[in-house]
Amino acid sequence: MMDEPEILLKTEQLLKFRLAFAAVCLLLTIAIKMFSQEAPHLAPVAEIVGCVIVYSSVALFLILPLLRTNKIAARISNYVKFGTLNSILLASDICSLTALVHATRGIESDLYILYLLPILFSSFVFTRKGIYVTSLSVSWSYIGLLILENRHSLRLLLDSANFHNSASNLTTIYVDYLWRRILLRSISLASVSLIWGGFCNYMANVTQAAANKLRLQLEDNERLVSQLIHQEKMASLGRLVAGIAHELNNPINFVHGNLPYLKTYVEDMKKLITVCDNLPEQDKQELSALKAKLKYDFLITDLDNIIADIENGVGRVHQLIRNLRRFGRLDEPDLQEASINEGIQSTLKILGQYYGKDKIPVELEFAELPSISCYPGQLNQVWMNLLDNAAQAVESVDSPEVKIKTELQGNQIMISIKDNGPGIKSELQGKVFEPFFTTKPVGKGTGLGLSICHGIIERHHGKIWFESAQGGGTIFKVTIPAQIRPA
């Protein structure tokens, strides 16, 4: 069963072929009439061909443009399918051919072979049932025409059956011969129609099989392209993150290395000033005046606070660098022992612009999980894509919330990431993991995030799926074997 865009394209192609074929027939009719003095009366033939041109033009230039308009297509599709349109066109073709055979001497006409054209047309837009229905319609149309044209002789044939001496009557002999010929022509056309219908059905199946194979190859190529993009992206991101971590580490190590000396020097200065405070009153008047002028007590307290803040900041930067290095293992070719919980936590810290204090609250429910053999950087990319999507899903929610849960289920590790966003529309849910599909505006996102996640989880012999209800949030679930090593 082909989809609407495909059947629309084939309908357009068949209409163009009808127009071209009818135009050639009309030119041949005119040429025969002009250059052959013995040509039969061809005016009815020209009229029939003209009718074919008219209804084909109406369908091609009026009906199809309306069907391409989304508003009208949606309205028409409720009661007129593309199959109905093609059925009407094929019925019109059969009627036109029947009239054409009648206009060209009926049973003596050689144009009855053109009845095979509607069967060929039907193989482009119908399944086996439609092809054989067209074959039977063609057969009955031709047989009905012959019976209708020779209905007067049928009574003579029936009357002759009542007389034993009918063989000596020339009229009876002719009628008997005529109806034998009608029977032979009918059987021949019906047989050829069914055989031709079977052949067209076979060729349509072969064509459809080839199209399906090509479609699968295109899907494989798209998947390969997405994998190549993913690998290059992972390698580049890994090098970028590792470079940033290295560049941050050098100045922070300098600050961290000098902090102990700074603290020591400050303590020594405090001791020196304390000793000076023990001098006789007449000797420390100038020192006391200077301490009051400089607000010595405040300076000492604030200096301690500054040193504590520096120590805290340096510690946080060191933690960030460790997270960057852990997350930056994106292009490691070998399996590594890693913790799922640590990977998610480091990813949350990397996404600090979304999650954290005064931002999107995250409810963590981590179970004690064993370390698994995996590609940690790739799994971190999965968590980053899922958490990034969750953060964007709750942007318009008054009280955004994201819940992350890990648990051990037998030999499987289950990871759930749930948001309270608007959910995914039902008509889009089947396309979520397709390469290059995205619901984000143009220029924001490549549509590769969830497709890449799907590929990474499959590489780890796991599964990824989601449950979503419009207006009820979305929960993405991932299962990864705790012991089976990825391919």
Describe this structure in words.
By secondary structure, this protein is an alpha+beta fold. Helices cover 66% and strands 8% of the residues. It has 2 domains: 4-219, no CATH class; 338-487, Histidine kinase-like ATPase, C-terminal domain (Heat Shock Protein 90, 2-Layer Sandwich). The model is unreliable at 164-168 (pLDDT under 50).
Short summary of the structure?
This protein has 13 helices and 7 strands.
Give unreliable regions as ranges.
164-168
| Net shape | rod-shaped
- Proportion of β residues? 5-15%
Strand arrangement in the largest pleated sheet: 2-4-5-7-6
Provide the descriptors you would attach to this structure in a database record.
single chain, 487 residues, alpha+beta, Heat Shock Protein 90, five-stranded mixed β-sheet, two-stranded antiparallel sheet, 66% helix, rod-shaped
Topology summary:
Blueprint: H1 4-35, H2 43-68, H3 70-76, H4 82-103, H5 116-125, H6 128-149, H7 151-160, H8 170-277, H9 285-294, H10 296-327, E1 336-338, H11 340-350, E2 362-365, E3 372-374, H12 376-393, E4 402-409, E5 412-419, H13 449-459, E6 463-468, E7 474-481
Helix pairs in contact: 1-2, 2-4, 4-5, 4-6, 5-6, 5-8, 6-8, 7-8, 8-10, 10-11, 11-12, 12-13
